[in-house]
Amino acid sequence: MDQAITGLHHITAISGNAKKNYDFYTRIMGLRFVKKTVNFDDPHTYHFYYGDKTGSPGTILTFFPWEDIMTGRRGTHMATEIGYSIPEGSINFWLKRLDAANIIYNKPSSKFGEIYLTFLDPDGLKIELTVPEKTDDRVPWETAEVSAENATRGFHHVTLTLDDIQATADLLVSVFGFELIKHHANRYRFASPAGDTANYIDLVEAKGELRGHVAGGSIHHIAFRMKDDAMELHYREKLEALGLNATPQLDRKYFRSVYFREPGGVLFELATDTPGFTVDESVEELGTHLMLPAQFEPQRAEIEQKLIKLV
């Protein structure tokens, strides 16, 4: 029998200015800066990871900041919004916080019986803060400005916008073991029965809407949790048997990855829970050093000179 997929591992997006991105997610959102490294394919570009204290799967948001990248466009064939879980009673804190930072937001509303607040990050990436039906017991990362009683707990959901949801829904159900749990209008919520958190995938069917363009302020891909290499390779075999073109397993230092394009056009990744972000820094020092893959260490001085200073 398959090992069950419990939910999301991480979400990767694209931003513009690295300093703006760093300031927004560490200061306004109150996330921990878990890892500062570089793009494996472009070592003069950062790769940032934000999350909880240790960068637990289901809390990790990563960015490739490209200074001069054009702005993307939300549309079909892509992931279009990231939902974070926040505690009950914290909406007013976040409203005041967004006001103080001059961030435009939509009036709080309700979806599937849960209150949520929507706003955009500095590059136009759509973020939602949702008070879940069931209390989210994950331990949050606290900062001087965002205490535990208000802090995000990690991902609540991610939304994919598609011109036809059927093939993607079939994959989530028949291969990944997700179940359709709620439906309203053109939004369909799927969940893994094996997971308690970061396990909602919303599919929005938007027939006739323009195809999205992945660039600045948009989501590049979403990753699902794999317990270990054996589980990942098992699911890779299943995808290949369905005719989906999955990559070989790739070593991303903090996890191992397999990528494939799901039938609706969104880039999916399978990512192992191990070895995690403490493989090259202690928990206390996470995010405090520029960590380079071994092949780029000889170029460290040149790379450090070209990267934007964050503080």
From TrEMBL:
<dbReference type="Pfam" id="PF00903">
    <property type="entry name" value="Glyoxalase"/>
</dbReference>
<feature type="domain" description="VOC">
    <location>
        <begin position="154"/>
        <end position="273"/>
    </location>
</feature>
<feature type="domain" description="VOC">
    <location>
        <begin position="7"/>
        <end position="132"/>
    </location>
</feature>
<dbReference type="InterPro" id="IPR029068">
    <property type="entry name" value="Glyas_Bleomycin-R_OHBP_Dase"/>
</dbReference>
<dbReference type="InterPro" id="IPR037523">
    <property type="entry name" value="VOC_core"/>
</dbReference>
<dbReference type="InterPro" id="IPR052537">
    <property type="entry name" value="Extradiol_RC_dioxygenase"/>
</dbReference>
<dbReference type="InterPro" id="IPR004360">
    <property type="entry name" value="Glyas_Fos-R_dOase_dom"/>
</dbReference>
<keyword id="KW-0223">Dioxygenase</keyword>
<dbReference type="GO" id="GO:0051213">
    <property type="term" value="F:dioxygenase activity"/>
</dbReference>
<keyword id="KW-0560">Oxidoreductase</keyword>
<protein>
    <submittedName>
        <fullName>Ring-cleaving dioxygenase</fullName>
    </submittedName>
</protein>
